[in-house]
Input
Amino acid sequence: MRAALIILLLLGSAALPAGDTYTWTDENNERHWSDTPHPGAQKVELIPQNVVRMPPPPRSTSPPPPLASARPAYAGCAIAQPTTDQVFFDIQSLTISVRVEPALHAGDSVAASMDGTAIPSSGPAAMEFTVTPIYRGTHTAAAVIRDSSGRTLCTAQSVTFHVRQHAIGNRPRVTPH
Output
């Protein structure tokens, strides 16, 4: 308890403002410092040394980047082709088309997938994606719009479609007469 009181008094005294400081030079040309005036002493103004002045931040000459909220949000995005439960017969490839409202903003891109696998695009503003070869069965197409940082801006409702291919074993046999 006594040690805590001593520490508290020492810390409190450090927070008190310092008194006046005086300096003078004696007959032996030695400099002296004191907190009490002395004959021939001069009062010294001390500048606090624990003040840190930070330089101002650099000024940018380029305009700030536009905020994502400054441009209008997408009203919607959808898979235009194929349509839900559409059936395709004997096809070798399929084109998945995506519709975006309003038009795709600069820097944004559409990513499409079929059955959970990404479909390569033909360019950054591609709205159509071709799947080759396309196998028979039921498939699901999906699409999203992303900004340049990869953030998803719009997600199209997935579409399920069907592909029917004739099998060689099911073709009618041609017999010569």
The first strand starts at residue 21 and ends at 25. Residues 77-168 form a domain with the Immunoglobulin-like fold (CATH 2.60.40.10). Residues 58 and 64 are 14 Å apart (CA to CA). The mean pLDDT is 81.
